[in-house]
Amino acid sequence: MASIFLGYERDELDQQYDLIGRFGDQYDVFCRLFESLSDQARAAFPSASLDIDCGDGLMIDFYPAAEPAAPVVLFLHGGLWRARGRRDFAMAATGLVPHGASVAIADGCLPQDVGPEAAVENARCAILWLRSHARSLGIDRERLFLLAHGLGAIPAAIALTTDWSLFGEGEEEIVTPVAGLAALSGAFDLEPLRLCFLNAALQLDAAMSATLSPAHLIVSMPRPLPAICLAVGERETDEFHRNMLAFALAAEAAGCHLKARTHAGHSHFSLLALLADPSSSITNELIALVQGHELDRAVLI
User: Fold this and answer.
1) Where are the beta strands (DSSP E) in the chain?
2) Topology (CATH) of 10-299
């Protein structure tokens, strides 16, 4: 068989992104864990507003912080495996809300569910919806951060490159509504996704791969630049490590304040589970980002 991408043959490239095949023994365990942790989160935050219909397939669950004018973290979840939804990721509120950050979890922003272009548009709409409802939600719209996992990193990262001058709020011009991005196990290069089994769902063509890959677009971010925090698990495939490095180098070249870290001992699934722990390394890095603390400049691959 001939190489189709960076020396990978088709079956080898499939294996790089087939997380169920690679971690099949852990997959069901983590699915049950995520469901249990998210059930606990909904029970722990009875003031949450669930099933907010923002139109055009965009749905949000909102978990408020105790104090008013709180920063807000918009979570665009991934789904490289069996279909998951916002209810499966409520656990993120368990880690972040105790630190004073409100959490919004969106459905409708997953590229394989609605298509990459619609996913990006819905991510933008979610950002604008949170801004326009900031007063009633008790959030500070100037402290809006994106959190993404897996394929959710595609619309999250592309949103950073938006020309927000096209999205006015009354007489006000929006400059940069996103203060920062944290991406776990992100996919930032669409070309290998186009060439592997995932394209049956993504339906990417060569032009879309070239124009929608965040690693290519990040240089066009408007100013002021957001802070970016990236993470990948040590036990993830080479392609996920390459994705983080490529995006980190592009973001750093664009001038972003950046931290990119490999988390020892973790896989695609166990890294995500750290969001449920208020004291975990991932949560601490997210809170440092949200609270505007200086990130340690580090790229550890």
Assistant:
1) 49-53, 59-63, 70-76, 102-107, 139-149, 180-184, 227-233, 258-263, 298-299
2) Rossmann fold (3.40.50)
